[in-house]
Design brief:
This protein has eleven helices and twelve strands. By secondary structure, it is of the alpha/beta class. Its EC number is 1.97.1.4.
Length: about 300
């Protein structure tokens, strides 16, 4: 199950890349900018601003699941099944209602990836798996990475690493670069903001470093969570001293994904304003450089 294939990306690894976004994640990060990636099944998104007055096509496609009320269209998401999803996928003429998620075979995905191989070869680019968490579907992830590796295409994985090691280890021979999240090293804070285990992530990071795989550490900086000097020092110390990493990217929090929660009918519990802390961002880069890391600020 994937939800997007983005060609000509220049922000998800070196060179020009094709990014395959896979559905499913075992974390519940409050600030997640891709909430439509969390479930391993399809999601239905609704933007009532695009609805046509008097249109009832979605109601006819999913009777008993979608209804019109005085305050607009209501989706009874707990009643959705595969028959409804199939009917809704192509029913809306304005794309007010869309279905996120589609099953594709390895061959279908690789047909898109291989179209741009000349661009990868010229720019040092390649395939990046993203999500969600790619290793939530290890069979597909391994197959795509191996197929790309066999085709001479550079491979990268954007990952939170919150999965069992047995999901990751078989893919190691086919991964050229890990773009690995290191959100926090404090177990209690990590669990409070992500519903996950920091120990699982840190242990996986250590195993990847021990395997000698190239790794770029990525740190989303969220106010109230880790956007403070003490947290940044602890994170950079772990990256430098335990992982012997060379590169670290700081990603200041933004709210560009906030509206997706409305489209999914979900509450948004992260800060409602972007991180505005230029002095802290300067300090983060300085702290990282003091630990021997090459620090990059990513928008």
């Amino acid at each position: 199950m994937i939800f997007n294939i983005q060609r000509y990306s220049t922000h998800d690894g070196p060179g020009i890349r094709t990014v395959v976004f896979m559905k499913g994640c075992s974390l519940g990060c409050r600030w997640c900018q891709n909430p439509e990636s969390r479930a391993r099944t399809e999601d239905v998104l609704l933007d009532p601003r695009l609805c046509l007055d008097g249109c009832s096509l979605c109601q006819k496609a999913a009777p008993g699941v979608i209804e019109r009320a005085l305050n607009g269209v209501i989706i009874h998401r707990e009643k959705l099944n595969e028959t409804h999803i199939t009917a809704l996928r192509e029913c809306c003429p304005t794309q007010a209602l869309t279905v996120c998620g589609e099953e594709k075979s390895v061959d279908e995905i690789m047909a898109t990836v291989l179209r741009d191989k000349p661009f990868y070869d010229r720019s040092g680019g390649g395939l990046t798996l993203s999500g969600g968490e790619p290793f939530m579907n290890p069979t597909l992830a391994i197959a795509l990475l191996k197929a790309s590796h066999d085709a001479g295409i550079h491979t990268a994985v954007e990952t939170c690493l919150h999965v069992p090691w047995r999901y990751i280890e078989p893919a190691l021979p086919y991964i050229d670069l890990f773009l690995a999240d290191l959100k926090h090293v404090d177990p209690a804070v990590f669990r409070q903001w992500t519903d996950g285990s920091a120990k699982r992530v840190l242990d996986n990071l250590r195993r990847i470093a021990a395997a000698g795989k190239p790794m770029t550490i990525r740190v989303p900086l969220i106010q109230g969570f880790n956007a403070d000097e003490a947290s940044i020092r602890a994170i950079t110390a772990f990256a430098a001293d335990e992982l012997h990493a060379q590169d670290i990217h700081f990603l200041p929090y933004h709210t560009l994904g906030m509206n997706k929660y409305n489209l999914l009918g979900l509450p948004y519990s992260a800060p409602d304003k972007p991180l505005n802390a230029p002095e802290l961002l300067d300090a983060a880069q300085r702290i990282a450089r003091e630990k021997g890391l090459t620090a990059t600020l990513r928008g």
